[in-house]
Please model this.
Amino acid sequence: MARIIVDVMPKPEILDPQGKAVHGALPRLGFESVSDVRQGKRFELQVALADESTLAEVHQIAETLLSNPVIEDFTVRVEA
Amino acid sequence: MKIGIVTFPGSLDDVDAQRAVRLAGGEPVALWHGDHDLKGVDAVILPGGFSYGDYLRCGAIARFAPVMTEVVAAAQGGMPVLGICNGFQILCESHLLPGALIRNDHRTFVCRDQVLVVENPDTAWTSDYAEGQRITIPLKNGEGGFIADEPTLDRLEGEGQVVFRYVGSNPNGSLRDIAGITNERGNVVGLMPHPEHAVEDLCGPGTDGLAFFTSAVRQLTSV
Model:
């Protein structure tokens, strides 16, 4: 078995209200060093074999379902 | 005149939409998300709510519901399709309409009577309105911020595809105050506010929403 990780993040130019809310909470907790927070999603896909054709399929999954290309970018990687 | 209203798991306003269609003189037909059949309807409404719990993204899973295959094909063939709130999100996820809806910029759910200005009375769902008319219908959403890239926004404005704009303070951070849009052909319309909640004087802010449904019924009857 292998695990493929898909990370989905809001595009840099898209407003991220959730990240802003998290960022806004930090000073209240006494954390002052963080200047910005962006929040995304991480998907862990269990597959039998992370070969080229499976990775191509995962790319397709990420593009059609896991992310919305209008507002989000994604990356695909095989977990070591 | 049969207008189908799709019920997804988590739809909330399907029955209100059916009622609005009936009040407008049409025949509402309940459609089920798992069906591959539009039951011979002349138009389709995707109602508000939280289809599939809004998991993943609002409308993202509903887009792949079996019935949506038929809805997308019918919409591309010119059938009038109206998406309200969650239905608007589903239309964007289905790429029947451009852009996307994201979380309100102020991060809180908004529920209020909202004034809109009608910018395009030439769609299948707005022909009973006049250009520039102001209407008041309820707005209730947590993820109603309409966004698209600048070229898309310019194209929408240039081609008259902005159907409604918010009047007064922008309730959710929608770019250029856009509340609703249509496709190039004018048969597919999506908006965040809820016309089906403003069809009777007894409840809601009045009857300003009724013309959505009479527009479609009139247009379908005259064909």
In short: DSSP finds five helices and eleven strands in chain B. The domain at 2-222 of chain B is CATH 3.40.50.880 (Rossmann fold). The two ends of chain B are 11 Å apart (CA to CA).
